[in-house]
Amino acid sequence: MDHLEALYAEVLSHIEKDPHREGLKGTPHRAAQTWRYLTSGYHMDLTKLINSAIFTSEVDQMILVNNIEFYSVCEHHLLPFFGKCHVAYVPQGKVLGLSKIARIVELFSRRLQIQEELTSQIAHCIEEAVNADGVGVIMEARHMCMMMRGVAKQSSEMKTSVMLGSFRDDKKTRDEFLALLDH
Ligand code: ZN
């Protein structure tokens, strides 16, 4: 039993009358494995991920990838939050391979997060990676800590957005982004 597993066994002994019953036999092991996976973003190599997928390009129009599914963990309650992420940027000389945008979302999602910070990290990462003229990121998510506990607000969704560069300074760019998401 490794250290994390042992800690889960201890947690079980605090929250369950009979922590050694049949159904819980492999639970510390599975929980430890699960949490390593849910936080695997801490060990992903961002530089390696991005550098192999930056291409020179003349394109200076908006590039949008919407409805990227993500699953993250709320750092306040250690419960999941999950939803969709919409990413757009206006390049100036360099573009990012399409699938890499989803990988960047994953890299930052698979950590302990709050949604506001997650949104900001994704936006800044893309801005820096390709020196974009502007970046817009919108995330809509449902939080288990709201749905399962306390007031049990089951249908409320949290929306966060971060606009950088031309997305922040130029209303036309921002409106184009929002209009594309409406379709
Ligand atoms: Zn929470």
Commentary on this structure:
The protein is α+β, with helices and mostly antiparallel strands and 183 residues long. The protein folds into 2 domains: 36 residues, GTP Cyclohydrolase I, Chain A, domain 1; 137 residues, 2-Layer Sandwich (GTP Cyclohydrolase I, domain 2), CATH 3.30.1130. The protein is 43% helix and 27% strand. The chain is built from 8 helices and 7 strands; from the N terminus they run αααββββαβαβαβαα. The strands form 2 sheets. Strands 5-2-3-6-7 form a 5-stranded mixed β-sheet, sandwiched between helices. The chain has a two-stranded antiparallel ribbon with strand order 1-4. Strand 2 and strand 3 form a beta hairpin. Helix 1 packs across helix 2 and helix 4 packs antiparallel against helix 5. It is elongated, with a radius of gyration of 20 Å. The N and C termini lie far apart (51 Å). Bound molecules: zinc ion. Zinc ion binds next to loops.
